[in-house]
Amino acid sequence: MVLHWLSEACLLAGSFLLLTGALGFLRFPDIYARIHACGVTETLATSLILVALLLKSEAALPQVKLLFILLFLMFSGPTASHALAKAAWQGGVRPRATRDAGERPASPAGR
Amino acid sequence: MRYTIAMACVLSLFWLLNSGHYNAAMLGMGACSVLLVTWIVHRMQALDHESTPAHLVLRLPRYLGWLALQVLASNLDIVRRVWRRETDIDPVVARLPLPQSSDLGRVIYANSINLTPGTLTIDMGEDYLLVHALSGDLCDALATDEMSARVSELER
Amino acid sequence: MLTLTVVVILAVMLAGLARAFFARNVYDRVLAANLFGTKTVLLIAAISYLFGSPDFLDIAVVYALINYISVIGVLRVTEMRVIAQQEDKG
């Protein structure tokens, strides 16, 4: 019974975070800021919803699968967003930054 | 060889946990696929000290627990920024030092930065990280080096 | 509550799709596609519990892997194209 309500609470919080992420995704001004907004949905919202589902299941096998999904997403999410940011940077898209570290010192070729 | 056997064991465990069918035919097919993948990876010579970081296993849980708290805190911060009427962001691009010497330590540090929303690694050089942060104070928090020190400790 | 979550996920996916259509550059599109992909994984997992058939979870695992590979693949292609353009200029 306690587990049931805990799971419901996780689902509610996760849904709210998903909405927040989507709102930030639509509102933020440039690609880098939007990646941050997506990060919200990718880390905490995903964990909350998967944990909620984990609490809902009785059998062990689905729980293990949910844990695997969580693990994959936690590994792939940051790597994908880094690849995206790097590709955008190399493609010449610059963020609207107020304090800037300037250009990279070394030659960009070879990496 | 040690790493190959370890990977075969991990793959078998992964297969068993995902399958749920334990009759002879299915187990045989599982064994075949594990052997095939192990052979391919062995041929690629992709296995070494770095791709099977057994030395990290003991220290990792503590770091992951700390990281989870950081992720939680920064998530709440971003949520607050999104729901303000004027989106409260002041993006900063900064160069941070990268003291970790091993590739694995660098990857863990950079990915930890990515995993906490609000900070994002754009590029990585020999001894620096190019980091985009959603606001100046997030960037300053990173520059205090707590995360970096913890990763260095993990790496040792 | 599970129904609500599924509806929210669908709405977020719709927003991502709309963004992908009206995006100005390729990176925005890939970001939207990435969002769409991770939400697909969540949607399949949630639906498998909504309909009470945990077998769907296997599909969610596969989607989680495919999504990652596709993002990296698309970005590799765009990076190669940028490098090729730079070589053309210089």
What is the gist of this entry?
The complex is a heterotrimer of chains A (111), B (156) and C (90). Chain B has 156 residues and is mainly α.
Description:
The complex is a heterotrimer of chains A (111), B (156) and C (90). Chain A is mainly alpha-helical and 111 residues long. Chain A contains 3 helices and 1 strand, in the order αααβ. Chain A has one domain. Chain A is 75% helix and 2% strand. In chain A, α2 (31-56) runs antiparallel to α3 (60-90). Chain A is elongated, with a radius of gyration of 18 Å. Chain A starts with a helix and ends in an 11-residue tail after the last strand. Residues 103-111 of chain A have low confidence and may be disordered. Chain B is mainly alpha-helical. Chain B has 2 domains: 2-44; 55-155, no CATH class. Chain B is 60% helix and 12% strand. Chain B has a 3-stranded antiparallel beta sheet with strand order 1-3-2. In chain B, β2 and β3 (128-133) form a beta hairpin. Chain C has helices at 2-22, 26-50, 56-89. At the A-C interface, α1, α2 and α3 of A face α1, α2 and α3 of C.
Total count of helical runs of at least 4 residues of chain B: 6
> What is Rg of chain B?
21 Å
The largest beta-sheet of chain B arranges its strands as: 1-3-2
Instruction: Give me the secondary-structure category of chain B.
Output: mainly alpha
**What is the overall number of helices of chain C?**
3
Order of helices and strands of chain C: HHH
What's the average pLDDT of chain B? Answer: 81
How many strands of chain C? Answer: 0
Largest sheet of chain B: 3 strands, antiparallel
Tally of domains of chain B? 2
Mean of pLDDT of chain C: 85
The computed structural class of chain C is mainly alpha
The helix content of chain C is: over 70%
Task: Summarize the topology.
The complex is a heterotrimer of chains A (111), B (156) and C (90).
Chain A: H1 2-27, H2 31-56, H3 60-90, E1 99-100
Chain B: H1 2-19, H2 24-44, H3 60-83, E1 92-97, H4 103-115, E2 119-124, E3 128-133, H5 136-143, H6 146-155
Antiparallel strand pairs in B: 1-3, 2-3
Chain C: H1 2-22, H2 26-50, H3 56-89
Helix pairs in contact in C: 1-2, 2-3
